[in-house]
Amino acid sequence: MQEIGQFLPLILIFAIMYFLLIRPQQKKMKEHQAMVAAVRRGDQIVTQGGLIGKVSKVKDDNEVEVELAENVKVRVVKSTIASVTSKTEPAKSE
């Protein structure tokens, strides 16, 4: 019984660390992955490098083409998108 009492503070510290650090980080990562998966043509984005541009083409599952200025396009890995500043409305199907 005394052995369990010695490990109880360690177990409590791990539980607190899980709920304060690990779980919120996992939730944030899932939200980021969902945001990146939902990026489509016309969305205004900010990359982790600080570049602001408009998505001109979604190349494949891992890459998008971003227009930074008129006739200036760069290919960006989707995971480096930090945020989507303005979403476009989906095309209406008639």
Automatic annotation (TrEMBL):
Top-level division of the source organism's lineage: Bacteria
Stretches that traverse the bilayer: 6-22
Subunit and interaction comment: Part of the SecDF-YidC-YajC translocase complex. The SecDF-YidC-YajC translocase forms a supercomplex with SecYEG, called the holo-translocon (HTL).
Record's bilayer topology term: Single-pass membrane protein
Keywords: Cell membrane, Membrane, Protein transport, Translocation, Transmembrane, Transmembrane helix, Transport
Gene Ontology CC entries for this record: plasma membrane
PANTHER family, per the entry: SEC TRANSLOCON ACCESSORY COMPLEX SUBUNIT YAJC
Pfam family, one: YajC
UniProt-recorded name of the protein: Sec translocon accessory complex subunit YajC
Biological processes, Gene Ontology terms: protein transport
Protein role: The SecYEG-SecDF-YajC-YidC holo-translocon (HTL) protein secretase/insertase is a supercomplex required for protein secretion, insertion of proteins into membranes, and assembly of membrane protein complexes. While the SecYEG complex is essential for assembly of a number of proteins and complexes, the SecDF-YajC-YidC subcomplex facilitates these functions.
